[in-house]
Design brief:
117 residues, alpha/beta, four-stranded parallel β-sheet, Barnase, Chain D
Length: 117
């Protein structure tokens, strides 16, 4: 998992079988870590601000999420599980998160696991 657990830290989509304990490993590698259950897209967007340390004015909607992700100042890893929903809102949330893994600048990693948080 070069780039995720060993330097230099790199953006990307990373799949892990088990997210238990991955947060501590990510922190040791230099990432700021947030957790989210993507089973409900709207609920996920609401908690992402707190999990990723967004400012108080974070609007808890998809536009605010996209904007706030571009303002990250430290390497950030989002550990995500779930994602069973296939409504338009959840699909757009997934697109925003994946797009951020491909954007230049501060590294952003989306770490997807199969075990619930």
């Amino acid at each position: 998992m070069k780039g995720l657990l060993t330097g230099p830290l790199r953006s990307g989509l990373y799949e892990v079988g088990d997210v238990v304990g991955v947060g501590a490993k990510l922190r040791r590698a230099g990432w700021h870590v947030g957790y989210v259950d993507l089973s409900d897209g709207r609920a996920a967007v609401a908690v992402l601000g707190e999990e990723l340390g967004f400012p108080d004015w974070y609007g808890r909607n998809l536009d605010a999420l996209a904007d706030s992700l571009t303002d990250l100042t430290v390497p950030t890893a989002l550990v995500a599980v779930g994602g069973g929903a296939v409504d338009d809102y959840s699909l757009e949330l997934g697109r925003i998160l994946l797009d951020r893994t491909k954007a230049p600048g501060v590294p952003f990693a989306l770490v997807v696991g199969a075990v619930p948080l």
